[in-house]
Amino acid sequence: MAAVTGDDDDNLVISQLAREKFGVKKIIARVNNPKNEPIFHALGIRNAISSTTIIAHLIEEEASLGDIITLYALKQGNVALVETEVPAGSQAVGKKVAELGLPKDCVLVAILRGDDVIIPRGNTELKSGDVIMAVSLMGKERALEEVLKGGKTEACEL
C-alpha cells in the first residue's frame, strides 16, 4: 500500500489504518515535510520517504565527495553502496586490504579489475585502476576516499 497524498497527516493515518486495521505488510508513505519523517518512523512506518531529504542527500554528496560515487542508499539514506577508483600513485597501490587502515564503518565488498570481479579479503592486494565497491555509513565516504587516494588514515578495525 502506498500513501502518497500531499498531506503528511493523511499519509500517516492511511498508513496506520492499513497496518493496524487491514494487516497490510508492505507500506510506503510519502513525507512532504522532512521534519515529520521521524514521526513516521517512531510510529512504525519504516518506508517513509521524503523527497526533500533524498534530494538534500544527493546535493550534499555531489558537493562533497570528490571521486566517490554513491550507487545506492540503504536504510533511509544512512548506509550507502559507493564506488571509487584507486588512482596511479596512490599510497593504497600495492597494499593488502588489511594494511589499508579502513574506517571502521566502511567495508570493501568488491574490486573490479579489468573483466574480473574480486571479493576482497585481508590479503587481497590493491592495484592501480582497481574500481572499489564499498558499503559505508553516510559521512564516512570522505575517510574511505582518503585511504584509497593516499590521504590520512584512521585506525583499522577488522
Q: What descriptive keywords fit this protein?
A:
Alpha-Beta Plaits, Rossmann fold, 27% helix, 5-stranded antiparallel β-sheet, elongated, alpha/beta, 4 helices, 2 domains, 158 residues, single chain, 26% strand, disordered C terminus, 3-stranded parallel β-sheet
Describe the structure in your own words:
This protein has 158 residues and is α/β, with parallel strands linked by helices. Helices cover 27% and strands 26% of the residues. The protein has four helices and eight strands, in the order E-H-E-H-E-H-E-E-E-E-E-H. It has helices at residues 8-20, 37-42, 51-64, 141-149; strands at residues 2-3, 28-31, 47-50, 69-74, 79-85, 106-113, 116-118, 131-137. The strands form two sheets. The chain has a five-stranded antiparallel beta sheet with strand order 4-5-8-6-7, with helices on one face. A three-stranded parallel beta sheet has the order 1-2-3. Helix 1 links the parallel strand 1 (2-3) and strand 2.
